Amino acid sequence: MIIPVHSLTELSIAAQQIISTFADERIFLFYGQMGAGKTTFINELCLVLGVHDHTSSPTFSIVNEYHSDNGPLYHFDFYRLKNESEAFDLGYEEYFYSGNYCFVEWSEKIPNLLPESYVTVEIKVSENQHRTIYIEKK
């Protein structure tokens, strides 16, 4: 699936489309260069899923938990991890295998710990600052 995004107002529609298309999936891995809009897009997904809390990047806490109309939702940012054992220390598997939504930034830091099934969401920025979102179930 490919979704072009020309403005921030289109993110909500893209988020709704992804959640409805991948209704049975719970693990979403986000890829894109620094500043591509991964966290901004995750915020839109959280709104679609009924999160009423303020959402923000978990860069320093590594994981943020939000309460939604669908139960707890987890947002990870593994950018600061030095190795995969740090993910074990925070108990990543309890989150990943909880059956709740998990939105993961910088999953390339934990390649050996990824579950068998997940959805990749790659955000690419063009020269004119428009985004294209590429989504694929793995």
From TrEMBL:
Task: Give the principal location in a single coarse category.
Answer: cytoplasm
One GO cellular component from the entry?
Answer: cytoplasm
Gene Ontology MF annotations: ATP binding; metal ion binding; transferase activity
Q: Which domain of life is it from?
A: Bacteria
* Subcellular location, record wording: Cytoplasm
Q: Which GO terms describe its biological process?
A: tRNA threonylcarbamoyladenosine modification
Q: What is this protein called?
A: tRNA threonylcarbamoyladenosine biosynthesis protein TsaE
Q: State the organism named in the record.
A: Sphingobacterium olei
